[in-house]
Amino acid sequence: MLRTLPIALVLLLTFAAVAQAENASVLLKMYGISATDPVEEEAKLSLLEEEYSVKASEVSSNTMLAAAYELMSQYSEEVLAGMDSEIYALSDELNAIEAAMGASKEQDVATIMELDSQYRTAAARLEEKRRLRDEWTEAAQAQPLDVPSQEKLEQDKSSLNSLGDKVDRQRQKYEQALEYPELGEVTSFKSPLAIPVRMTSGYGVRLDPITRDRMTFHSGMDMGAPIGTAVLAAFNGYVEEASRNEELGYYVILNHGRGIKTLYGHLSGYQVEQGQQVKQYEPIAESGNTGSRSTGPHLHFGLFINGRTVDPGILVPH
């Protein structure tokens, strides 16, 4: 069992309770690993959705305008056809009057004057109809500049479809980014120990502490700590392993999601079991001096991203 928790642990737990949660993408970016941030992806999605909305409104307006113009064109054709019919009828009427006038030379003056009056009236009506037809034809042929062509409409619809595909892809990226687990503190992470950090061996190549005759690679960082010091979960996650082996002695591996794992080695014991959910800064074990690779009481702290070790010293202030 853990001994009475020191003040440092209480402070850490208190700070964790009020700390703003950060997702796994924040940690990945600290190590230069490409990651999608849900906040950034949501902003990109909003911009694309706004662009799509504007484009869709434009395409809709232009489509309705083109349809209205098409209806107007059809109406114009019907009007012109009606005018042509009237013009043909008036032309026939004039021809009939001319024929009657030719046959009325032997008739009385009154009849001739009546036919002449009818002819003048019909001729005036015919001239007026032709004038109206010319004006209507000119107006119908003058397409407004803001009415898009059918080719332009098809191009705009194609662009809108492409933009819609972009929105769908970005929405998928945003939804995937939301799946990044919340780790807790990342940029202001304190320590996996309930006491101030005292690094005794850093990450990287070092003189082998056991043989003292060759250089070996150290895949984590060692922090000096009296046996029984509370060991804290670095981030939210679950216990992937809680076991013992020859080199590490008692150890715990936490899985934090998105390929992020932390290792705690040379423990004197642990209070968690495989599959157990843990929260950041929750006590999971006690530091110790177990395992063949330990030369004194300390905690071996390792950080893995996508199966590869990374320097936890970037994360832990020391």
Automatic annotation (TrEMBL):
Residues of the signal peptide: 1-21
Q: Which UniProt keywords apply?
A: Signal
M23ase beta-sheet core domain mapped to chain residues: 217-312
Q: Which SUPFAM superfamilies match?
A: Duplicated hybrid motif
Q: Which InterPro entries match?
A: Cell_wall_metabolism_enzyme, Dup_hybrid_motif, M23ase_b-sheet_dom
For molecular function, the Gene Ontology terms on record are:
metalloendopeptidase activity
The species this protein belongs to is Cohnella fermenti
What name has this protein been given in UniProt? M23ase beta-sheet core domain-containing protein
Region annotated Disordered, chain positions: 139-168
